[in-house]
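Today's session is about reading a structure prediction critically. Students often jump straight to the picture, but the first step is always the sequence itself: look for stretches that repeat, for charged clusters, for runs of hydrophobic residues. Only then move on to the predicted structure, which in these notes is written as discrete structure tokens rather than atom positions. Here is the chain we will use throughout the hour.
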Amino acid sequence: MLKAVLITLGVLCLLFSLAVSAYVTLYKVKARNVSGMLLFVLLTLVIWIGAISVAVAGVMVHP
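Below is the predicted structure for this chain, in token form.
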């Protein structure tokens, strides 16, 4: 059960990060200000959280 939750969390984080990166790409002018930089930092953290969740789930599947 925990493996499924971690995999789902990782996939959702990656999908969310793709959506945010697409938004930033479409509105690059807004991404040049301070809030845009904060959004970029948040996006990076979300990508890392998703990647770590998938990695942990993979380790649990193949110990």
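Discussion point for the tutorial: The chain is about 85% helix and 0% strand.
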